[in-house]
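seq/struct pair 1
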Amino acid sequence: MKDNCIVAQSGGPTVAINASLAGVIDGVKKSNKYTRVYGAIHGIQGVLDNNFIDLSLMALSKFPLVNTLELSPAMYLGSCRYKLPDFEVDSKPYEIIFDRFEEYQVAAFFYIGGNDSMDTVDKLSKYANKIGSDVKIVGIPKTIDNDLCHTDHTPGFGSAAKYVASTMLEIAHDTYIYQIPSVVIVEIMGRDAGWLTAASCLARNDYSPAPHLIYLPEVDFDEDQFIDDIKNVLKTSRCVIVAVSEGIHDKDGNYISASSAVADKFGHAQLSGTGKALESLVKDRMDIKVRSIELNVLQRCAAHISSRTDINESFALGQAAVKYAAEGMTAVMSTIKRVSNDPYQWIIEPENVSLIANQAKTIPLEWITPEKNDVTPEMEAYLRPLIIGEVSLQYKDGLPMYLPVNHLL
């Protein structure tokens, strides 16, 4: 009798993806539906390679599950960026995967990840339907980019947003101490969607208006206007702090850093150097001190400043996925639906994964100012609840204690 399940993680790491894994393990424990839960090492690649660890014992121990796993950053099971081919063209990987499901008596497969991971969930679901397999395939959202459709927001985004806003505030304090006029450009992740860069607006408070300017990939970027924007801010401020998405582009669709851009296996441009490009532009056009800062991977796994709201929601989404599979659902992803902003309330509902895979949710244009250099109060109202709450980490020798990942080394 098939009564086991497999869970895997894929894509880029976040602070909260292990909380979703913990939610799956907890959901399995409480479901009375599944006997064992296996973790595939390095995503779907681990299923193909027959590389598993048994997570069942973790479900019996409350301490590492609640106090350590859910608060450990990145991916306990490791990751991959493996793109499944169209099974009509090459069915071999699918045959291996479903043979593996049969070998391990798997009744459900849970995949935690972003857009590309939901592509895998969608393809596996359709192949299962084609061959008449009863294995339930369920997706669990994850991405700091916050660009998955049909969910209010994604796990990992709230914590990354909290890191970005906190860092922006600290950069402002660093900048304000000098009397010399200056420009600081902070490059933030976001290839096609500017949600994370927009979150920098949360750094603003009664005494600090930084960032003074915010530029997002949802609208075209104009270099001449950028210089004019900086000059306008300098009329009333000694310094200018700018938040910019790595994926900003001109009216012709050319990335500001596109000269060295390459594409990954999924066809996504790999960008960097946007901040440096703008730093050079300011140096060429203005006589002023300027520096650029690239947050890069630092914003992905800063567990020491994670959002409790983010962790709680991520855990609940993992639990919900197990519930859906146990109830016979397949080809769905657990999603967050916002009920209200103030007080902040939300519910979890299943959504057809085919509506999510290979789609991207961008910022509504009405949440970007007409000048294309800032966001509106509606954006701040959307973002603010997602960073609320702190976590309590355990420390050893002055550093956070996370769950060991010897199995990945």
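seq/struct pair 2
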Amino acid sequence: MAIRRQRTAPCRTAVLPGTDPGAVAAAGRIGSCTLASVLLVLTGLIVFLDIATGQDLRVVPLLVVVPALASVFCTLRQTIWVAVWITAVVVGFGAHGDGTFWDFTLGIGFAALACGLGVAACAARIRHAAEVARLRSAAVTLQRQILRPLPVLTDQISAEGIYEPIEEDRFVGGDIYEVVQSSYGTRVIIGDVQGKGLAAIGAGFAAIAAFREAAIREPTLTGVADALEDAVLRHNAFSAQTGEAERFVTALVLGFVDEKRVEAVNCGHLPPRLLRDGRSSPVPLRKTYVPLGLAALSHEIRTTESFDFPRGATLLLFTDGVTEARDAAHAFYPLDKRLARWAGREPRDLLEALRGDLEDFTGGVRRDDVAALALRRVPVGGRPRPTGLRGHFRRAPAVLSDR
């Protein structure tokens, strides 16, 4: 992996693309020039105080705490240089002092011990941080196989989106989405697994994996929905054997078959909103079936219905983490009222407004995963250029440790 060199920072550590942010903590947070300046100023201040107090109060030995502080914020190499510098200062002042030989020896031994412990602590911190970074990087890679980064472009639509799991240190929660280009047209799913956080990922992954296969294989949208039902049932059967809770999945499955109409199978999910001509309105889906995994409780056979989705309009799909968000007074988020203000915006601006308004409305306190997709038909003549809204999926920079 090549190192990207930055010419604007003479005192810095080399940055590598594609590594987890945990490596930043492992490599250190203070530049070498800043560290040297602080160390010189601190040493000068301590030496001045030692000279000013005379033999009655020796202040220089207090410098032995500096390597301990450096071990928390600096790289291993920086901590070693700090330890060497502090030891040299203590030895120099001890050699010119008026104490006995044993005072000098004990002082040097204490300084060397304190500096050695600081270096050892720094090495242990970096080793632990690097291990955590490797584990987190592997987890992020696996989680990104469940939900693809946004935006997604196909031959028929562009899909912008936001995705905010309730667990901030996770990239995937209980909400799911996917966009697949097939020979039968573009197919889209958005869903919400019963439960929250990591406990809901298993059922969500089962549904996503089944959708990716069925969207390409099945000629009808009801066939896709049936494949999803079977996948959730298989997952629940396995969960029952392992003692885990069985779960259901609410889902809205869409199929873009021509330039105007969209087919839909609604499995207990919230109806989307259609934004066009500066207005927002719920899509009038008349048939709502039981969620995936609960088909045995109903005698209804899932069928498709269609609605108009003209070019230039925006179709907003979302989960109940949006509509059930609450403010400090426990009032629900007024989605339709807010959308009426933003109906004329582009998908990216619409989602940014929604994200910011949700944050302000809830005061930053989320009670459920939040997912929303803004779909728009591609312009005539080809795919649109990606706008760059990627929800929380961001490639994080990393630092190459100089230890």
